[in-house]
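Data availability excerpt. The first of two example chains:
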Amino acid sequence: MFIMSEDSQRTQGRDAQSSNIMAGKAVAESVRTTLGPRGMDKMLVDSGGEVVITNDGATILEEMDIEHPAAQMIVEVAESQEEEVGDGTTTAAVIAGNLLGEAEDLIEQDVHATTIVEGYHEAAEIALEAIAEQVQEAEVDDDVLTEVAESSMTGKGTGGLTAESLAETVVEAVRHVETDDAVARDNVTVHTQIGASSNATELVPGIVVDEEPAHDGMPAEVEDASIAILDVELDIRTGEVDAEYAIDSIDQLNAAIDAEESELQGYAETIADSGADVVFTTDDVADRIASSLAKEGVLLFDDIGSSDAADISSATGARRVGDLDDLEAADFGEADRVRSENFGDDDLAFVEGGAAAEAVTVFVRGGTEHVVDELERAIGDALDVAATALESGEVVPGAGATEIAIADKVRQEAAGIEGRKQLAVDAFADAIDIVPRTLAANTGRDPIDALVDLRAAHESEGRAGLVTDGETVTIDDPFEHGVVDPADVKREAVESATEAATMIARIDDVIAAE
């Protein structure tokens, strides 16, 4: 009896498990060598010839054209990590891949997948306890936040800037949007602009949008700006029905022209009389209106995107107006300064200070597109982890020290677990070891020797990581060298990697329709 289409393909049992695990391991292996401050870069070229050079795990996995459903689950681990805490994507993917590798060995030893899943989940709980034990007791102040941001960016492309100087900018930005209850991370944006050294990167107390004034005669800068945002087309009104008008004399033509001019002048006078000296509108503006407003000293930006209008509204407190007749002072937003500045072929509008200062923009400069793209990714991750650390108030040692502590505690607890589940718990610890092993390999050290030394230092000192300082790599307490990570990054990596690995390991039947 046939219950499926003849074109369907079905893979069962060990073959299905092996296929899924192999796919997951392959994805994890593709990003493993990018881990750590000495991680390698990947060059990704799409079908159109577009090139991306990065060592950011989330970007690599996002750009890869992955079709295998099990491999896609590992990509989702990185996406979840990026969405929740902003960093640790490579760590999460690598751990998930190695949990699958350990599961494959256990399956070959006739350990049932259900037993493996139970053991992994129990080990994950122990891992979370180990992370809690590694949390630094000191308060998360600006110095610690700077270390968190710098640790996140170390090894990533930062152009001519040092990770330390960028970290200070990141902390300033995060502190700027800190509230009593949380950190308004969405109020920090990163805007990139090609055409200068990365040393020109700065923090703008406000927002930056890709817009130019509607008329060359408008002021380039307005102080103490009253800002209006319009969703109005400022041009001659046209009917919805096509119509033709017969003009029999020059007087009729002049009358039509005067009527148009009067209508346009009325729009310009309404805006000028309202008291707004900076106007953003999402629709078109007739040249004659722009010219009239330029004479009145009004700075106007037309045809801006709806998302930019929403950002300006949120930042300045201006209310969007859909009918010019409804425009009044109560709808205006405020800013200390609005200015237009030219950068080569691009014009940018800067809305700074006042109400707009509730939002901040990291204005990133770089000589090439590749430089600014990588800077944008690095700063974005640093902003995320700094915000996470500030909100939670918990940081743990980086440089593989937390993973060494996790593996050590899991192995100790495994001794008290009965049955074959103990094998899975031990395997979990072995999988976690991939992080310090990879960090060691990427620095040129022998992974096995480094792992032995790290374990010994951890047992004697209580904390040990592979600390990179220039060309020197030493085994020491990462806290002493300012190498720290938010505790939530480690927790999320363990939880998401365990969830993905156990989900894949439980699949023993794959049915694919053609």
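And the second chain:
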Amino acid sequence: MKLEQIDVPVNNQLLVDYRNQKSTISSFFHYTNEDESFERRLEDLKNHPIRRAELVKVISEFMAPLEKSVKMEQHLRELENNAVVVVGGQQAGLLTGPLYSVHKAISVLLLAKEQRAKLDVPVVPVFWIAGEDHDIDEINHTFTALNGRLQKHIHPDRSKKKTMASTTTLDIEDTRKFIKNVFQQYGETAYTEELLAKIDTLLVRSHTYTDFFAQLMHWLFKEEGLLLLDAADPKLRAYEAPYFERLVNHSEEIADVVSNREALLADSGYGTPIGATKENANLFYVKEGERFLLERKDGKFINNVANVQFTKEDMLQLAIEQPACLSNNVVTRPLMQDMVLPVLAFVGGPGELAYWSTLKDAFELLGMKVPVFVPRMNMTLVNRQVSHLLETHDLSVTEVLSGKVAQMHHTFVNEVYDDAAKEAIEKTKALLQQQYVDLQKHLHKNDVHLDKLVIKNLDIHENQLDFLLKKIEAEVLLQHDVAIRRFNEMEGQLIPEGILMERVFNPFQYMNEYGMTLIGDILQLPLEVSELHQVIYI
């Protein structure tokens, strides 16, 4: 395994400006992403009340079904005393979802270790599972690459209901079939049997999407002591009851300041990532496992689809007596995290950075500050086959990610293309068209009007010539199939359909090639959370 750190251009202007600490975006945060900010944030957290014993009990009970580890127990003890946390989170995707879920967890772990050393205080890594998210279509699939083309594998159990990931049951047999189909695309290796057996062991302990995600993530990061929380855990919701009260009491003000802040963000050229409105309650109501976004209208909290309406007093009563009936959205989730946890820093992607850019005034409204926001690491895994192809073509990963392979592919196809055949067919079409013009003139001269039939007949002949040209093109490309497959393989593995591979593939594709120790070995590399793109040759 080898590490290479490269500079890859970023298209997201907000992220670029945040990294460069441009005033146009840094003014939307309380801290910039630099060392002195962590020291200031640590000092500010001394006045931040956390019910630590209750919190640790919630996390311990959620992680009880998972295998214990020395680091996990250490981090729980530290959190109960005076530790602060680095937190990141993601939806509960099948087979962990895209690799960036794993990369986010690695970023959280590395940043926690780094700040523990620099600040000389216990800093604990926490992964916040967004189990309350209800868009199952976003998490019920994964991708493989076949001959450089993406293949989408969707879990067969599809529900019409928008139930939360933490309440959506996973059928064990259906999920086994799903995993088997995915691994068939990977191909049999020396690690496949052991890997499938381990995944199956964790699957049978799981009842929901969130259970399975938590089992897999804990297995991958157990020795590092990554603590896991489920946003939809009823015990966490009970712990959050007084915080839901605060969110209900300040719902109108939160909606107002977030809408105003987002307007400022748009004026600065960064768009409207949330689409905030002053009527949004920024809370969901949970009914039979489904979430319904509430709006404020005429002094009430309503959702017409669910046929519910609550007064503010009703909402406060729900917060106190039935907090599991309430759920956060993208606005209130960061606020809730900061009330629940002593957050030193939050690790997130570009989308989360955009959301968080709208929240400064909402944090202040609740007497808090936006934690230090640290962009997650970007990583690309390169297997041996792709590494060999790069060497053969004298290409770097930087060049592939910047589109050079696509250019080479296009140039190669143009070079082998049969221009003479195309020219001959175009000449034939031109002659044919002229002959049909002459035919039309002759028919008109003899008072025969078959214009539509003549045009249709010409179209048939032109379509046949086009079909012939495509067949010629396909035959030529087939003669150069090996070269073209190499281009497809490099693109398909590193930047499938123009997207970074970490946004497409899951980690088990690479564990199937490398072995069970992949994540542990990656964590042994001299990685640092930075704006450099981490390329790992496995």
